[in-house]
Amino acid sequence: MDEILQTERLRLRRFNTGDAVFMRDLTNTEDWLKNIGNRDTNTEELARKYLENGNIRNYTELGYGGYLVELKETGESIGMCGLFKRAGLDHPDIGFAFMPQYYGKGYGFEAASAVLKYALEVLHLPKLLGITLPSNKGSARILEKIGLTYTGMIRLPGDGDELMLFSS
């Protein structure tokens, strides 16, 4: 199952290619497209390739990546949360996204808190970052609530959007 960690209500595990349909659905929600961007995952096959070339590859190359978030009680996939290494950032950043029907239930905070603890205590990463669009108030609140501090605005290479930068 490649479980990474559990919280009171959630299980986080590594993605596999069998999660392509869920990834297709998640990456094509209105909020993902608005706040994260189009990842060209409109079909199951494109989503599978996105997983293979992203999270699945990162597990081997970096030792971390984005993790599927499931409800412990039902096993239902509800989102993703994990660590990402991006061009233009000196340290990994914590990122998360959930299906809209799971907003406002504390799952983002619960998953992000657990990933932050995992990154610092298990992976021994010296520093974590967080980035979000200024318009994405919910993500900014979660980043601050897990203990990251707003440090200023940045632009990542090849990205025209100015982003809020948070740091541990």
How would you describe this protein?
This protein is of the alpha+beta class and 168 residues long. The protein has one domain: Aminopeptidase (3-Layer(aba) Sandwich). 33% of the residues lie in helices and 26% in strands. It contains 5 helices and 8 strands; from the N terminus they run ββαααβββαβαββ. Strands 1-2-3-4-5 form a 5-stranded antiparallel β-sheet. The chain has a 3-stranded antiparallel β-sheet with strand order 6-8-7, covered by helices on one side. The protein is globular, with a radius of gyration of 15 Å.
Topology:
Layout: E1 3-6, E2 10-14, H1 20-27, H2 30-35, H3 44-61, E3 66-71, E4 77-84, E5 93-98, H4 107-121, E6 129-132, H5 137-145, E7 149-154, E8 163-167
Antiparallel strand pairs: 1-2, 2-3, 3-4, 4-5, 6-8, 7-8
Helix pairs in contact: 1-3
> In angstroms, what is the radius of gyration?
15 Å
CATH topology: Aminopeptidase
| Number of helices, where a helix is a run of at least 4 consecutive DSSP H or I residues | 5
Task: Count up the domains.
Answer: 1
Spatial shape: globular
CATH architecture: 3-Layer(aba) Sandwich
Structural class: alpha+beta
Helical content stands at 25-40%
Report the top-level CATH class. Alpha Beta
